[in-house]
Amino acid sequence: MGKVSFVRSVFIMLACSLTSCFSNQYEEIGKKKVEGSTNLYVKIYQKDQFEHLTPVAFELINKKDSILIHRRYFTGETPMLQNVEDFYPFLYDSIFYICYPYPVVYAIQHLDTSKSDFSRDTLFKKLKKYDDKLIGAEEQ
């Protein structure tokens, strides 16, 4: 009985370890202030999975941690990110966008709900007038 109990314990510990290592949950990598805003922040998450390319998502929040844009995928990266120093969130004329790294724009959205149906191209053209160094991620 002692051997069976030991093998069962080892099996349970191994299963728990693998489950925790490959939980496929998003882990928060960090939080960064949105330039051009006094009270907006972006949280960057990366999915914890054993793949060549792991999803990276963001969430836009205010000073009180209220979510303005729910977690949304915007790129993939490998290996696991250690920090958010290469992410540059900006706000210009109610247009929220994230560069990774600057000047490559990966995420873009108008925060004014009456203008939220504007296409990505329309918003990007408006941003290019403000900052002509910006590059669309698909242009790389």
Description of the molecule:
By secondary structure, this protein is of the alpha+beta class. It has one domain. The chain is built from two helices and eight strands; from the N terminus they run H-E-E-E-E-E-E-E-H-E. The strands form two sheets. The chain has a four-stranded antiparallel sheet, with no helix packed on it. It has a four-stranded mixed sheet with strand order 5-6-7-8, with helices on one face. Strand 6 (95-99) and strand 7 form a beta hairpin. The longest helix is centred in the N-terminal third of the chain and has 20 residues, at 2-21. The N and C termini lie far apart (62 Å). The model has no long low-confidence stretch (mean pLDDT 85).
Describe the secondary-structure layout.
Blueprint: H1 2-21, E1 26-33, E2 40-47, E3 54-62, E4 67-77, E5 88-92, E6 95-99, E7 104-110, H2 120-130, E8 135-136
Oligomer: single chain
Low-confidence stretches: none
Major sheet size, sense and barrel closure: 4 strands, antiparallel
Gross morphology: globular
Major sheet: arrangement of strands = 1-2-3-4
Estimated radius of gyration: 20 Å
SS field, number of helical segments = 2
* SS strand fraction: 35-45%
Please tally the β strands and state the result. 8
Helix/strand-derived class? alpha+beta
Alpha-carbon distance between the termini? 62 Å
Give me the strand/helix succession. Answer: HEEEEEEEHE
Mean pLDDT over the full residue set: 85
The number of domains is 1
Residues in helices, as a percent range: 10-25%
